[in-house]
Amino acid sequence: MQIILLTDVEKLGLRGDVVDVARGYARNYLLPRRMAETATPARVAELRKVDAQRAKHEARSSEQASEIAEVLGKTVLRFEVKAGPTGSLFGSVTPSDVADEIWRARKIRVDRRKIAIDPIKRIGRYSIPIEVFQDVDVEVKTLVVPEGGELPPEEELAALEAAEVEAEAAAAALVEAKHVNIDSVLSEDDAPSLEASGEQSEAESDDETSPEVED
């Protein structure tokens, strides 16, 4: 069935894309999580109209692209996002988010597929590379800021990330230790039964080999 993505979905498409997916995948996963909506003719036409309007603001020559790149080079994007104590986001900042923010701030359309980033999942300061036109590239400074706060210094950001990595490693080690303990307990539980089985086999063997006693 055809759906319209409401968010960027890895290996499937970007927000606003109309894609074909299995009906079960749509109904059981994408639609309940509000990651997509059904692609009705009216909604598809609406999206195409909006895209056509924005396309008028896209670079159509190297000269236009150079002018746009100059503007974007002086632009600082800012995203205020929900984040945990170690700086991890409750969600992510995607290429579609960046393209939408550039449109909102500068009324410049850039191709989301030419925004060369993976989804950003931590607060921090970023330089996002964008191909504005063939052979015309620019890096856009971007701040991903905790909601209602400001970015700490780079040293503190690095310390927060290191602390999160350490915590994840400790958690993984704890899970591994629990698995080892469970395997050990299972092995110990099996041992007596194996020994008993061995003793029983020996007894049966003795019975088979012992001479019969005649009265």
What keyword list fits this structure?
about 220 residues; 2 domains; Ribosomal Protein L9, domain 2; alpha+beta; three-stranded antiparallel beta sheet; Ribosomal Protein L9, domain 1; flat; about 50% helix; single chain
Structure description:
- By secondary structure, the protein is α+β, with helices and mostly antiparallel strands.
- The chain starts with a strand and ends in a 6-residue tail after the last helix.
- The strands form three sheets. It has a three-stranded antiparallel sheet with strand order 2-1-3, with no helix packed on it. A three-stranded mixed sheet has the order 4-8-7.
- It is built from five helices and eight strands, in the order ββαβααββαβββα.
Mean pLDDT score: 84
Strand order of the largest sheet: 2-1-3
The total number of structural domains is 2
Shape label: flat
For this entry, what is the oligomeric state of its chains? single chain
**Describe the biggest sheet?**
3 strands, antiparallel
Decide which structural class fits the backbone. Answer: alpha+beta
Q: In the CATH classification, which architecture of the largest domain applies?
A: Roll
How far do the termini sit from each other? Answer: 87 Å
Percent in strands: 15-25%
Within CATH, the superfamily of the largest domain carries the name Ribosomal protein L9, C-terminal domain
- Total strands: the figure is 8
Share in helix? 40-55%
How many distinct helices? 5
User: What letter string, H or E per element, gives the SSE order?
Assistant: EEHEHHEEHEEEH
User: What CATH first level of the largest domain would be assigned?
Assistant: Alpha Beta
CATH-assigned fold name of the largest domain:
Ribosomal Protein L9, domain 2
Would you identify the regions where 5 or more consecutive residues have pLDDT less than 50? none
Output the radius of gyration: 30 Å
